[in-house]
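In the lab's daily routine, each protein ends up as an entry in a very long ledger. A line of letters takes care of the sequence, but it says nothing directly about the fold. The fold becomes a row of whole numbers, each drawn from a learned catalogue of backbone shapes. The protein below has been through that process, and both of its lines are reproduced in full:
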Amino acid sequence: MRCCGRWPKPVPERPQVGYYVHHHGSGHGMRALAIARHLDCDVTLIGSRLPEGSYPANVKGLLLPGDTAPGMHVESFPALHYAPLAVDGLRERMGLLADWMRNAWPCLLVVDVSVEVAMLARLFGVPCVYMRQHGERTDTAHFQAYASASRLLAPYPAAMECSQMPDWVSSKTDHCGWVSRYSGHGRAHVEAEQGSVLVITGQGGTAFTVDSLVAIAVCCPQYRFRVAGPLPSSDLSLPVNLTLLGQLADPLPELLRAEIVVGSAGDNVVAEVAHLGGRLIAIAEQRPFDEQRLQAMQLERLGVALGVDGVPAAQDWPALLKRARHLPGPSAWQALLNDQAAQDAAGIIQATVRSHFGAALSPP
């Protein structure tokens, strides 16, 4: 009798972990790599924008093509966020994800983040740990992803919850705290330079322009502004108290020298400033589901940072910076920090692997 299928592959002794990394901004990738370092199994980071640099021996990358095409038409469905038709990149990336899940079995997929990837994992019978995000994520698609996941992981403190979730979502959620590459570093033996302001323009997009920064610097001559990150080009001449640093491989020295940090209210900037005990003005950029606006409001409500909805007018910055100088700094963040956040996140993922496969994985 002929068999039209393939002979089954030998099942590996130890389950693997796939980690889907969303391409918007750099924070998803940095968080993924920080957590992957503490997973005691083979890990594959999967996405169209993966962290650069060297990986630990147990970690490799699977690069996916982009999921857009010129002139594509995106329809809206209550149960799906993004499912355009006839986009080659989308078809190829879903095929590569499917191939990985089939060939890596037994495996678990961490999804940070995509409702559609989470549903693909469920349809393949692959357990999923889904990363929660801030914002009003009570729509049908999010609830479908939350329900299909084996576990929900919130990479922020429980005190930062800023939307009302049903009990079943809360009971599936583990809060590991902010995950940062600077965890445990603190500000030991580093004195901030009075009047130094570091403005971070992230790779996920920024409302700052060179024109707006010039206007702010002119209105605040007693401060020295240093800007790290990409900005649109401009022909304007810069005032003496404004320096454009461009993209930095490691902003740690600049973060430590700054008396005040100005950046988006996204998880990566917030986590880094929190672990370094800095004074933060969190600018809420336009993001889906009011993600950054709600996080900025919650930071201000807790008294650890100033939360601002969009970039204020230049004439408002002297008063804003004066308020930021009176933030408590390290003492305010301390109660919210978990220096073992990456290790705890890895532990939650490995515990979920064991619950499905009974694998004898060592704790991270």
